[in-house]
Structure formats: structure tokens, C-alpha cells
Amino acid sequence: MAHMSPTRNDRSRIPAGSLQRPIVGDNGTGGLELRWDGDRPGSGVRLDPGWLARQFRGGRLPRRQPLAKAIGTGVASIVDATGGLGEDSLLLACLGWSVTVFERSAALAALLDDGVNRLRQGGDAIAAAAARISVIEGDARLLLPSMERRPDVVYLDPMFPPKRRSSALPPKAMQLLRALVGDDPDAAEMLALARTVATRRVVVKRPDHAAPLAEGAIAEHGGKLVRYDVYAPVPPPGGQVDARPTLRERGRET
């Protein structure tokens, strides 16, 4: 994993008022996990192939998922600019793509890198998918403009806004993640930057109850609880981009 030291921001601070402190520590078997400080090793969360391992067929998942439709066809390179716990990066890799992951929280980047390296040791289709993932610690706002070769797609999964009038607690993994890195107040700024870097499209994951991160999506692909908003890139001065919609994207798909 390459290491960089950009200026820290809200994603690397614990929100004020937190009653429990999240830590990235040893899980008791030589790996890393994210858990509440004081909880026993082995009780935390980490990159887990879960349902992907059960549905893998022939080393690649069928590209019928909404995320695959949002990424589109003819794509060779993807940057996941908000790595998080790595589930979406692993899904993209299982769908057959090579994925470069940026994560600006040093603790979370270490957790993700550990998880990817662990999965690579499996000797199965998941291991082959994990080998297509590269983890880089750093702020995507600094890393994206400095890339020698612009990616076809930039994928963004900023922290979801909380549901209004909901008394249900979010899943444990989401509670831990939010406590560790906070919200993403610069998500709209990240989208604007990503559109100047991607050559084909930018895909933004949003909960079904939330408004788009920005106006002007050229397509949306909905799932049960989330949707993927697709944005055309902004061409560089004197340049051209290929943001032609697929047949499924002529109009809106939900």
C-alpha cells in the first residue's frame, strides 16, 4: 500500500460527543478489525466477502446488479475514491474490473489493506478478485488530479445522511465507520473534481431517501435501498470525453 500524508480533515476525527471510541486493532487471529474500544478482539468488523463468496460463479459475478449497470460497458479502469470498509471495491473486482482504492483515513486504509491482503491468500475466485484491488492511503482530492493516467470511471460512496424520523439504529459497521471518520461535508466538492478526472463517467452511491448529490445526473440505477447516480465527465480544456449512455440509460432506470 502506498502511503501519503495529505492535510487531515473531518474524516480522520472522532465526532464530538461520541460515548464510545472506535479503534482499529488486532482481531485475535493476526489480522485487523474495526471495533469499539473495550470490546473483545474478534467482535469487530472487517472486509468480508460474505454473500459474494456464495454467489461467485466461474470467477466473475454476472453484471446484472445496478452497480454494474451504472459503471457501464467498455470500462477498463475504476477509481473508488471513498474506500471505506471496501465492500463496493470488492464487488467491483468480483465483477471483473481492476479497482484502485483511495482512503484518506490512515486507520481505515490500514484496515482495508489488511483485508485485501488476507483475501488474496485464499486461493479461490475471491482471491483472484482481491488481486485486482490496489489500496492507496491518501485524500482523493489530492490523488485524483495527480494521476498519470486518468481513470475511465470514478466511484464515490460518501457517508449517507441519516434518515429523518427514524428510530432504528444503523448497522454496527455503519455506526463504527461514522464514529471513526465522521461525515463527508466535501462530497459535492469531490464529485465536481471527479468529473474533471474521469474520462467516461462518475458514479455516486446514494440511499434511496436522499436527494442527488448534485443536479444533472445522466442516469440512475436503483436497487432496493440504494441507487447509483451517473454523471457525465466535464471535458478538460480542448479535450473530449466519452459519456454516451448505454441502451439501458436512455432515460432513467429504477
Which helices and strands, and how do they pair?
Elements: E1 2-3, E2 22-26, E3 32-36, H1 51-55, H2 66-71, E4 77-80, H3 87-94, E5 98-103, H4 106-120, H5 125-130, E6 133-137, H6 140-143, E7 153-156, H7 172-181, H8 187-197, E8 201-207, E9 219-222, E10 226-231
Parallel strand pairs: 1-6, 4-5, 4-7, 5-6, 7-8
Antiparallel strand pairs: 2-3, 8-10, 9-10
Description:
By secondary structure, this protein is of the alpha/beta class. The chain has one domain: 3-Layer(aba) Sandwich (Rossmann fold). It has helices at residues 51-55, 66-71, 87-94, 106-120, 125-130, 140-143, 172-181, 187-197, and strands at residues 2-3, 22-26, 32-36, 77-80, 98-103, 133-137, 153-156, 201-207, 219-222, 226-231. The strands form 2 sheets. The chain has an 8-stranded mixed beta sheet with strand order 1-6-5-4-7-8-10-9, with helices on both faces. The protein has a two-stranded antiparallel sheet with strand order 2-3. It is globular and about 50 Å long. Mean pLDDT is 82; it is low at 1-18 and 244-254.
Short synopsis of the structure:
The chain has 254 residues and is of the alpha/beta class. Helices cover 26% and strands 19% of the residues.
The strands making up the biggest β-sheet line up spatially as 1-6-5-4-7-8-10-9
Q: Work out the strand percent.
A: 15-25%
Write down the overall mean pLDDT. Answer: 82
Low-confidence stretches: 1-18, 244-254
CATH architecture annotation name = 3-Layer(aba) Sandwich
Q: Could you give me the name of the CATH homologous superfamily?
A: Vaccinia Virus protein VP39
Q: What fraction, in percent, of the residue positions are helical?
A: 25-40%
Order of helices and strands: EEEHHEHEHHEHEHHEEE
Question: Helical element count?
Answer: 8
Biggest sheet overview: 8 strands, mixed
Helix-strand makeup class: alpha/beta
CATH C-level label: Alpha Beta
CATH topology: Rossmann fold
Span between termini: 37 Å
Domains (count): 1
Radius of gyration: 18 Å
Secondary structure: number of strands? 10
